[in-house]
């Protein structure tokens, strides 16, 4: 006679590949664990890579807490071209020459984005207005008025400048659209710009260095994978399950 089905519990750190939505990762892990009670603590765009914090079993109860922690990203901005999605997946709407910019010029522009502020979400996003996701309206060429959202940018650093590309590191509050930061930085510099690539490197105290690639996770025996599940009380000590 078969015993009760094993219920796994804990936090799993996944290094998300490109061309996967966050929900794709959830679906594949549900198949791996043979459990439905699996979610994530913060979406990544399909083209973005890096840390996806997966909540397995009862760990889904700390979803709101885990989504509220600050996030850290690295990425690349291409100046001189504006796209309709604010990233490299979109259609180029406008090109402008990139002026002679020094690192000091770029750092001065980045500094203006640090601190508390309101950010207008991009049209190509899953935010719903009147029950309809914005990206559906955007695909029809429609522009919908969006309420600015409060965000906080704690860190926005330049890591490399080689015109027309710059590498950055940003640390910000939940709900920050990094591709909008890239777009707005281009506007601030007078030539426009878009996000070329993005990688989430940290969420709160959790770091992508401790994550496993999705394909590696899917090939692991379940007993080995269970050992990779972090106890919830270690990840979210202030939350009682």
From TrEMBL:
Active site: 45
Gene Ontology terms, MF aspect: tRNA pseudouridine(55) synthase activity
The EC number(s) this enzyme carries: 5.4.99.25
Domain tRNA pseudouridylate synthase B C-terminal span(s) in chain numbering: 179-222
SUPFAM superfamilies from the UniProt entry: Pseudouridine synthase
Xref: InterPro entries: PsdUridine_synth_cat_dom_sf, PsdUridine_synth_N, tRNA_psdUridine_synth_TruB, TruB_C
Residue ranges constituting the Pseudouridine synthase II N-terminal domain according to the UniProt record: 31-178
Enzyme class: isomerase
CDD domains assigned to the protein according to its UniProt record, in alphabetical order: PseudoU_synth_EcTruB
Pfam families: TruB_C_2 (PF16198), TruB_N (PF01509)
Keyword tRNA processing attributed: yes
Catalytic reactions on record: uridine(55) in tRNA = pseudouridine(55) in tRNA
Keywords of this entry: Isomerase, tRNA processing
Purpose of the protein: Responsible for synthesis of pseudouridine from uracil-55 in the psi GC loop of transfer RNAs.
Family, similarity comment: Belongs to the pseudouridine synthase TruB family. Type 1 subfamily.
Name by which UniProt lists this protein: tRNA pseudouridine synthase B
């Amino acid at each position: 006679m078969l015993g009760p089905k094993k219920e796994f519990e804990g936090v799993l750190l996944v290094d998300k590949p490109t061309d996967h939505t966050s929900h794709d990762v959830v679906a594949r892990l549900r198949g791996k664990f043979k459990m439905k009670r699996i979610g994530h603590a913060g979406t990544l765009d399909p083209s973005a890579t890096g840390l996806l914090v997966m909540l397995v079993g009862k760990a889904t109860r700390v979803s709101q807490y885990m989504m509220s922690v600050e996030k850290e990203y690295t990425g690349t901005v291409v100046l001189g071209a504006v796209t309709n999605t604010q990233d490299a997946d979109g259609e180029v709407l406008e090109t402008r020459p990139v002026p002679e910019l020094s690192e000091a010029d770029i750092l001065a522009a980045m500094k203006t984005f640090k601190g508390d502020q309101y950010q207008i979400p991009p049209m190509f996003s899953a935010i719903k207005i009147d029950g309809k996701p914005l990206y559906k309206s955007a695909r029809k060429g429609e522009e919908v008025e969006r309420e600015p959202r409060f965000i906080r940018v704690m860190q926005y650093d330049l890591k490399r400048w080689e015109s027309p590309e710059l590498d950055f590191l940003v640390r910000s509050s939940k709900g920050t659209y990094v591709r909008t930061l890239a777009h707005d930085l281009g506007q601030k510099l007078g030539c426009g710009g878009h996000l070329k690539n993005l990688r989430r490197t940290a969420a709160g105290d959790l770091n992508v260095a401790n994550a496993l690639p999705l394909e590696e996770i899917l090939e692991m025996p379940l007993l080995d994978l269970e050992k990779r599940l972090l106890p919830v009380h270690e990840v979210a000590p202030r939350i009682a399950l």
